[in-house]
Amino acid sequence: MVSGLSLSGGCALAWLGDPEDKKPVYDGTVGALINCYLSDQNSPYAGLRQSTARVYGDWCRTLDRAIGKRRVDHLSAHDIRDVFLRLMEPATVGGAPRVRLAKS
User: Fold this and answer.
1) Calpha distance 30→57 (Å, rounded)
2) In Å, what is the CA distance from 44 to each residue of 36, 47, 48, 73?
3) What is the model's pTM?
4) Greater confidence, 86 or 72?
5) Is the dihedral of CA 59, 64, 66, 70 positive or negative?
6) What is the rounded CA–CA span in Å between residue 52 and residue 47?
């Protein structure tokens, strides 16, 4: 017993964390960061309205496809600019630039 608190049964140790708890893992990549943002209960994403969350989720998947495997600490300003320009490319030959997608 510690300060009047019994440690038997493991319930008093719950604050240490449940090893079965499936928290998102951040491995340093943009994709892992996106996954943490989308799935962590404490993320601002968790509090979005459903329609807003759907749009944000689409943008996150687009960004993940573009640079999800890249390590955050290895990205430069030039890399971010290249991704912006690539996302802005028209979806079809001769089509309009996808400015809205790129600026999101």
Assistant:
1) 14
2) 11, 6, 7, 23
3) 0.66
4) 72
5) positive
6) 10
